[in-house]
Design a protein that fits this description.
The protein has eleven helices and nine strands. The chain has helices at about 105-115, 125-145, 150-175, 180, 190-210, 220-225, 230-240, 245-260, 265-275, 280-290, 295-305, and strands at about 25-35, 40-45, 50-55, 60, 65-70, 75, 85, 95-105, 120.
């Protein structure tokens, strides 16, 4: 006899929200006041960039197009796009704030990658929300010079999450249906293959973390799907703007942090669960990703919990 599920028994309707697990990183965020001679040479990087003029104006060349940012205008730049600052161009001082960020949620990444470099301005709810979040981040940046308390760290975290929410709201407003309409050059087969690779990468890491059985890397996944690893890499990168290996590294570090919260698990056990034969290799990679060795991260996380 099949046992009755007390949750669904007598239920009339039931809807499930999707599970959400994402890592959001902000890098090299800085406030800077410059004189009329200041310029920054052309460069590109693998992160998204937000640049806002706080006082004066700034001439930016992005992807061969020149923009003149006025006070309060926000410039959004996609990864890999070459850009430079020609300074104020007005013979006056200029103050700006710049942050670089990355997100491993593949749906949001795909939506962001379809937007050309653009100035966000005007009296819209989306602009106001992004500007408010940036103002809070800037305020916490200026405060952190003198205040290294846990409270200020939480204030900065709150402002950063506010920025993520505002950014996502902007994407929803300008791209009501971003996934279906995005990247029209990609075929349905390419999208389906990229989605399949994503699912199997997640499965391999989550299964390994839960059971200790090592999951396969991109080569094993490609073989399972019946494609070459080169083809899978190309499809994944075309859809999500990052390699499967980059995405896998993000999943591994996220799981490593969760497992390190459990004092019953040794670093050796965690390393082997996540597919590392060499514990020292895991420790070196973890420190490169987080700035701390595994045991240092464990001590820090437990010290913060004890506060």
């Amino acid at each position: 006899m099949i046992p009755i599920d007390p949750v669904t028994h007598h239920s009339i309707d039931n809807r499930m929200s999707p599970d959400i697990q994402a890592a959001f990183h902000i890098f090299a965020a800085h406030w800077r006041k410059v004189n009329s001679e200041w310029q920054y040479p052309e460069h590109s990087h693998s992160m998204f960039e937000i640049n806002i003029v706080l006082q004066g104006q700034q001439k930016m060349t992005v992807g061969g197009v020149t923009f003149t940012q006025q006070t309060g205008e926000i410039l959004f730049i996609r990864p890999g796009v070459r850009h430079s600052s020609l300074g104020s161009g007005s013979g006056h001082e200029m103050t700006y704030y710049c942050l670089h960020f990355d997100i491993d949620d593949l749906i949001l990444r795909r939506a962001l990658l379809t937007i050309d470099s653009v100035i966000i301005s005007g009296d819209t709810p989306e602009h106001r929300a992004i500007r408010s979040a940036l103002d809070n981040i800037i305020s916490s940046t200026m405060q952190s010079e003198a205040d290294h308390s846990h409270r200020n760290r939480l204030v900065t975290l709150h402002a950063s999450l506010q920025f993520l929410a505002a950014l996502t709201g902007w994407i929803v407003s300008v791209m009501p249906n971003p996934v279906q309409g995005a990247n029209t050059a990609a075929t349905e087969n390419t999208l389906a293959l990229a989605n399949a690779v994503e699912g199997l990468l997640q499965e391999s890491v989550f299964t390994a973390a839960a059971t200790g059985e090592r999951g396969g890397g991109i080569e094993a996944i490609a073989a399972r799907l019946g494609y070459s690893s080169t083809h899978c890499n190309r499809a994944f990168n075309q859809i999500y703007g990052m390699s499967p290996r980059q995405y896998l590294s993000g999943l591994i570090i996220r799981q490593a942090k969760l497992l390190l919260m459990d004092n019953n698990l040794s670093v050796d056990t965690i390393a082997h669960r996540l597919g590392y034969r060499d514990v020292s290799h895991f420790s070196k990679q973890f420190k490169r990703w987080t700035g701390l060795p595994p045991m240092g991260y464990r001590r820090l996380s437990h010290d913060e919990q004890a506060l």
